[in-house]
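Weekly sync notes, structure subgroup
Attendees: PM, AL, DS (notes)

Item 1: joint prediction request from the bench team. They want all two components modeled as one assembly rather than separately. Inputs as received:
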Amino acid sequence: MSDHPTDFKGSINEAIASSIVGLIPDAKVEVSGGGGHFSIVVVSPVFAGKSTLESQRLVYGAITHLMKGDLAPVHAVDSLKTKVP
Amino acid sequence: MQMGHMPLPEALRAQLQQLVTTNAVLLFMKGNRSAPACGFSAQVIKILDEVVPDYETVNVLADPVLRDGIKEFSSWPTIPQLYIKGQFVGGCDIVKEMFASGELHKLVEGAVPPPSPPTITLTEGAASAIKAAASDVEGEVLRLEVSASFENELFFDVKKEGDFVVEVAGISILVDRATARRADGTTIDFVDGPKGAGFKIENPREPARVRSLSAKELARLLDAGEIAELYDVRPEVERKRASIARARPLDDEGLARLEGLPKDTPIVFQCHHGVRSRAAADEAIRAGFTRVYNLEGGIEAWSHDVDPTVPRY
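Output from the run, pasted for the record:
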């Protein structure tokens, strides 16, 4: 796990999860990791019929604000899985 | 959506659109093909090297505007980003998945036109050296092979299925199909110098990488005026002990000067033994410089081979 400085206050894992649920209300979200690197699993019916690209773009759209700038709390998403329940 | 709070300027959008449509396979990445600057970019390079013989890369680290712009353009917040035939394919995760499923191979096959015979130039010296060598071999033809990492090999071989035969200056050269995509525009020269005689192959498609310079070669290039930018990466305390007179310190002033230079300026980096300077040279390649050299052996070699008045420490 590498370390990336951030000026973010509070739990980044929770911020990721709540941002995703904010956009996809019925989503079940699991976030693991730290030090700027995170793994995310999102389960929601919204992904049905969508390609991996479309599904991931939807999730990234919810957390882009956490990935912007040099001091972004989320430096990299090492793994992003989107599933239909 | 949280996307798009920074609207993409139209000129930049047009520039990106042109980039992705004029290059069949294009990777926006950190660093370049020979020196990826991030693990995710490196993984995608490794896959592309295997799947597609020829692709283009854009180093987003060399241009912060482009780096932010491509994220907006693709609605995708991370680098690397792969485009095939103008379509956004995805980042590292998706590329890995599509590689494993075989989908990537299909996409690439549809996007990359079949190879055509490359144009190869032989200098007179090279042509006569090849003719002399060819008189010793029977039934074999010269072959040029360019590997995925752009290492060149020149040897006599038999013709194989799928080979192109390029005729230059009365000499036939075999080129396999993967090489054909990489070798277009290659010049083969024959040089007879102090380090012995041999073929010198120059390929304009070869991605930029750090080249090694010996102290003696550096002295010659400096004297000939072929190189004017020599940077000493060591801290002041070491520079005070011993310095090469013509080297500039790579301090704030040196960095500012370096940033203002045209990207094709020849630049040499130097330290004590050549290790720290190689890291700086790698950095310069990532920043987009194309003619970057490392003084092998550093100031130690310089003192030993060129100027013994420079103290050793």
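Discussion: Chain B has three domains: 10-111, 120-202, 211-305.
Action: AL to compare against the crosslinking data before next sync.
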